[in-house]
Amino acid sequence: MTALEKFQNNRNALGWAFMLPAAVLLLLFLTYPLGLGTWLGFTDAKVGRDGEWIALENFSFLVGDSVTRLALFNTLFYTVIASILKFGLGLWLAILLNKNLPFKSFFRAVVLLPWIVPTALSAIAFWWIYDAQFSVISWVLTQLGLIDRYIDFLGDPWNARWSTIAANVWRGIPFVAISLLAGLQTISPSFYEASAIDGATPWQQFRHVTLPLLTPIIAVVMTFSVLFTFTDFQLIYVLTRGGPLNATHLMATLAFQRGISGGALAEGAAIATLMVPFLLAAIMFSYFGLQRRAWQQGGDK
Amino acid sequence: MSTAADRSDVVGMDYLQSVPRRWVTIYIPIGIFVFVLLFPFYWMAITSLKPDAELLSREGNPFWIIQPTLAHFEKLLFRTEYPAWLWNTVIVSVVATGLSLVASVLAAYAIERLRFQGAKPAGGAIFLAYLVPPSILFIPLAAIVVKLGLFDSRWALILTYPTFLIPFCTWLLMGYFRSIPYELEECALIDGATRWQILIKIVLPLAVPGLISAGIFAFTLSWNEFIYALTFVSSSEVKTVPVGVVTELVEGDVYHWGPLMAGALLGSLPVAFVYSFFVEHYVSGMTGSVKE
Fold first, then answer.
1. Which of A100, A121, A130, A138 to probe by mutation at the B interface, max B CB count within 10 Å?
2. Which residues of A7-35 are buried (b: 16+ CB within 10 A; e: fewer)?
3. Predicted pLDDT at A300
4. What ipTM was reported for this prediction?
5. What structural domains and CATH numbers belong to chain A?
6. Which pTM value belongs to this model?
7. Are B204 and B270 in contact (CB under 8 A)?
8. How many CB pairs under 8 A join A and B?
9. What is the pLDDT of residues A235-260, one digit of tens each?
């Protein structure tokens, strides 16, 4: 047996050889930066200058910094409200798409468009829709006689918050709806027939048949949705760049503004690191939620 | 009730619902959903064809065009660097997708079928890598990209996009490989095929739908990527479409809405086009990664 043949029959050697390209790319551009980012947060590095260890100075500054605190509030508010809306509307759309509709596959295909189109580009369309002077929403409301002045969608702090949330929900609904639709399609119709014979109302069927059977998929879909929303960057960057008065700054946009535009690499890295505990909490929450379901259903997962 | 019951296309218990009730509970809500989800695209398209005089006027009906013009597209294609951005996006997306697919096929096959020691932890690590968002990586990655001398080049993007493409593609392909019967591989092993031959001649041809799903998904993810492209590239001739449109077409306080919308529309069409041919693959890729 030659050395090459030996190698080809050794599953451990071959396995690691096959893992090599993926492992090299991920270790160099994912694991290493993850560690480097945490380390940078404890230094005073600037763009083009290696930093020195300054322990918790960045973090103690950020905790006292009103803009960072506002950004954290904005991020939590944005994530909670947008996730609830995406879940509610997405589930509703999934249930609608699961009915017997004419042109069902056409609807399903078209509904996903906001999800596949580059967010930065659809955000530009929203920017124009939210324009202070020529907004089409204001135009319609004026014509209907509901308002007499054009709405300043992105110029007022609370208007801006709700407007960016609306754009985020618009983009996120398709993902939630199509994923949940895949879950709905696995539920056997006989459950609904059986419960109907027992006299269940549509609401009772939804509450006691659909929802429990859908919970595992809801947990995964919403974890991803929360992750995407919490770390959102492009939508805010395009629509408001964090303004007005930092009212829409998220952790990610603030990290970019301080770390890249402002050159304070270490401070930006520290802000990004501050997001990690929240992300871990979201992942753990859904992971254990999922385990509980699997255990209740007698699964061995 | 009776009219609904007579229709041959009603399935299951749908006959219990009357036609007016179906309109209120199903058709009208879904109509509103589709209208809201598609309106921004209509608005993009109609704005890109409107002359400036109509764009910046509150008179008349904004939902329609009186004198359509291609002037914005002409400006975009011949007086900006848009074609270069389009070309960059194509190169970066295609190369990053190809690279990620090769690495993912090998990794997924090793984890799922070679079952080497440490395959399980490796699979778990891949899944965890999938959960790491670019928003917390871009600052240290920028430092690494500068150190490696890749800053402001296409390679910066081609080499960093696999950080989110490989975990996704590997996870998806693992699911596909799992569905291929062991017996096929065992037969080939008895006939003297090497592992490499098995992968190329048996597993890959059977996993073509999975490869297409992963490829389409990876392509759209790279096409849509924004934060890395914004951070790692600064000169106009290496920018991608999303970044170019956002950073270069906005000049000062004057917003050229026509060219902006034309740029957004043209940048969206390629992914929409690819997607329209592979809807089923795309959906199975998206939902497959969630169901695992």
1. A121
2. ebeebeebbbbbbebbbebbeebbbebbe
3. 42
4. 0.88
5. 66-296 (1.10.3720.10)
6. 0.89
7. no
8. 292
9. 999 999 887 889 999 999 999 999 99
